[in-house]
Design a protein that fits this description.
alpha+beta; Double Stranded RNA Binding Domain; 3 domains; 4-stranded antiparallel β-sheet; 54% helix; elongated
Length: 244
């Protein structure tokens, strides 16, 4: 049967002629007797016929419906019943990447890390703008690459490496909770992010130290006396903060 077109779908919706209209591969445009038209996916799993609603029209157009269909087919090919997967999402309340981050942050990052604000800041600033509102199963390797390329173009290689590390951990959390079957960040390495980081031999000059401490004193209301004294102590001792 010939595939539907956006014009045909709009015409069927206006006509209110009750029926199911096939687009192919199990995708149907359904015009009910009452209410909004919607997209339906019919499939077979374990020998049983199943049907699920993908979204309502016009909020989900033809192109989006076909995209959603491919996601559900991918789940099915991986041995996961799309209807069961949707129920699991409803039980956990973890549907988008933002939901996933909140669960990861609360149950893994905060109890484990001394400074959980670091991955939280990197997620909000670097990862969220690209994929925060996406459903977990919609994120792919191209989205991961987009995050890394934006950071690389801004000239922050060490941040790119950190963000890649946290994305891998974030998706491992999703796999652990059975929210996705793969980790789209797993195939990326240091060379795809900021490259191998090299230690620096350079030290601040005396004039640079004087300039920095002068700025700290000028903004003491925001920098804080404790931080100022700590910096002075590190400079005097010449050691890393972990050694103090």
């Amino acid at each position: 049967m010939a595939a539907l077109t956006a014009t045909k779908v709009a015409s069927l919706d206006r006509s209110k002629q009750n029926g199911k209209y096939a687009d192919g591969l199990g995708l149907y445009f359904v015009v009910p007797k009452k209410g909004h038209s919607y997209w339906s996916y019919r499939y077979t799993v374990h020998g049983k016929r199943r049907e699920m609603t993908l979204g309502k029209y016009p909020f989900m157009g033809l192109a989006d419906a076909r995209g959603e269909l491919m996601l559900k087919k991918r789940e099915l090919m991986s041995g996961l019943d799309p209807l069961v997967a949707r129920k699991k999402e409803a039980w956990s309340g973890i549907e988008t990447m933002n939901h996933l981050f909140e669960d990861w942050f609360t149950n893994d990052i905060q109890p484990r890390l001394k400074h959980p604000n670091i991955p939280a800041r990197l997620y909000r600033k670097e990862i969220k703008p690209v994929m925060g509102d996406m459903r977990i199963e919609q994120v792919n390797a191209r989205d991961v690459r987009e995050v890394l390329q934006r950071i690389k173009l801004s000239g922050r290689p060490s941040i790119a490496n950190d963000v890649l590390m946290y994305m891998k951990q974030l998706f491992r959390h999703a796999v652990k909770l059975d929210l996705t079957l793969n980790n789209p960040a797993a195939a990326f390495g240091t060379n795809d992010a900021g490259g191998v980081e090299k230690s620096r031999d350079r030290a601040l000059s005396l004039d640079e130290v004087k300039g920095a401490t002068a700025i700290f004193r000028k903004h003491m209301d925001r920098f804080g006396m404790d931080n100022y004294l700590s910096v002075c102590l590190y400079l005097v001792l010449g050691v890393r903060k972990g050694a103090c």
